[in-house]
Design a protein that fits this description.
four-stranded parallel β-sheet, 3 domains, about 20% strand, 14 helices, seven-stranded mixed β-sheet, alpha/beta, about 425 residues, single chain, globular, Rossmann fold, disordered N terminus
Length: about 425
């Protein structure tokens, strides 16, 4: 197995949400950072004999063959001390929310500690695929007296970050369990037959990145082409002309949610219609649950708190969908005056913080991997807070949710 850093190839253009997230956990000075550097073939993490050198999770997007595009995450030590140490441990454990494969790095010269045993229990409870790397076998000596931890029943892979012994085997095992536990997912191609025509409605507004399409649009076009189908792209202002110019009726029309209402009026009822955001709700495995969350929109009350959350960060502009358009649509639809809060990027409230909200309206999550998106949804639902995403919420508020779900065989909402 070989590795390479991102440089500009198609693999390296893979968005973070589509990469396998591989996180390395362990105690301070277990050799996590050294092993990360050995696995990646790069000086990704600072290595020092000083305990606790890694103070925040370190992330690196790269290619790990034969697995492909991955995101490697090096975390702070699980046994860090003091108030600041507790914060570092919390940040390390937060990585579990978006981790696809975990590697527990254990110091082979020491016995297992309770902290390591507790982490293995978390892996098991979350059904998170994991590997235990028994590091420092080049220094191995008889272990000291037990420290309260229970050795794992999971097989240990003996490795040495210093000599490189079994590092290749570790990489092979990471790839093996990542592929074994990764279900085949399609964005839209499973709804199509070769030769089908799909029309994509993409408005170009002030928030659109100049000279390029946003990620959901790019991914959808690629999936359509991979299915041997034809993608016709137009703005909402040119949709009528596009439909009239086609010799064959489109198999599907996919629209940006912001122009859902206008597109619904233009596309004949017999042509299936949905949005990019709704496609991503299904792609991330949460379509039914998010559809259920839309029901809360019908009984929002004055003063109830609504969280609008985006998985990416971008410069807010006039007419921004998250901070301006959706709040306006919600107020118009509910005839109420709820209070809105906003988060973006890696920000998302804890369970305790979520309790104050009556509803969470989340973006499609194209920049988040499925683990992270599922974690956010489960966190809210576990404290009784419904969640809906942008596309489903907009379709519901414009009275076209039932139609937009029909392409997926969902008729009851």
């Amino acid at each position: 197995m070989t590795t390479s850093a991102t440089s500009g190839s198609s693999l390296n253009d893979t968005p973070s949400g589509e990469r396998v997230h591989i996180a390395f956990f362990g105690l301070r000075n277990a050799g996590k950072s050294s092993l990360v550097n050995a696995v990646t073939g790069q000086d990704l993490s600072v290595v020092s004999e000083v305990r606790g050198t890694t103070t925040d999770p370190v992330r690196k997007a790269m290619e790990l063959l034969p697995l492909g595009p991955v995101l490697i995450i090096d975390t702070p030590g699980l046994d860090d001390e003091g108030a600041l140490g507790e914060l570092r441990v919390k940040r390390a454990l937060n990585v579990l929310a978006n981790c696809d494969v975990a590697v527990l790095v254990h110091d082979a010269t020491s016995d297992f500690t309770q902290a390591e045993s507790d982490l293995l229990k978390i892996f098991e409870e979350r059904r998170l695929p994991y590997i235990v790397a028994n590091n420092k076998i080049d220094l191995k000596s008889p272990p000291p007296p037990p420290q309260g931890g229970t050795p794992p029943t999971h097989p240990l892979i003996p490795v040495s970050a210093i000599t490189g012994e079994n590092v290749s085997l570790l990489k092979e095992k990471i790839a093996e369990i990542a592929k074994r536990d990764a279900p085949e997912k399609k964005l839209v191609s499973d709804l199509l037959e070769p030769g089908d025509v799909v029309v994509l409605v993409i408005p170009v507004d002030k928030a659109a990145p100049k000279g390029r399409l946003i990620l959901p649009q790019q991914q959808t076009i690629r999936d359509i082409l991979d299915a041997g189908c034809m993608a016709f792209v137009c703005q909402d202002t040119g949709l009528e002309q596009t439909l009239a110019s086609l010799n064959a009726k489109p198999r599907l029309v996919i629209t940006d949610s912001q122009v859902f209402e206008r597109v619904n009026k233009i596309v004949p009822r017999e042509i299936p219609l949905t949005s990019f955001s709704i496609l991503f709700a299904r792609y991330k495995g949460s379509l039914k649950l998010l559809t259920e969350g839309a029901k809360k929109l019908s009984n929002l009350k004055d003063g109830e708190k609504v969280l609008i959350s985006e998985g990416c960060t971008h410069h807010r502009q006039c007419g921004d969908i998250g901070t301006e358009k959706i709040p306006a649509w919600v107020r118009d639809f509910t005839k109420a005056k709820p209070e809105f809060s906003f988060t973006s990027g890696g920000e998302f409230p804890s369970k305790e913080e979520l309790k104050k909200f009556a509803l969470v309206i989340h973006c499609g999550g194209c920049m988040l991997n499925e683990q992270e998106m599922q974690s956010r949804i489960k966190r809210a639902v576990s404290v009784g807070v419904p969640v809906v995403n942008y596309g489903i919420a907009i379709a519901n508020m414009h009275g076209i949710l039932k139609r937009s779900l029909e392409p997926f065989g969902l008729t009851k909402i």
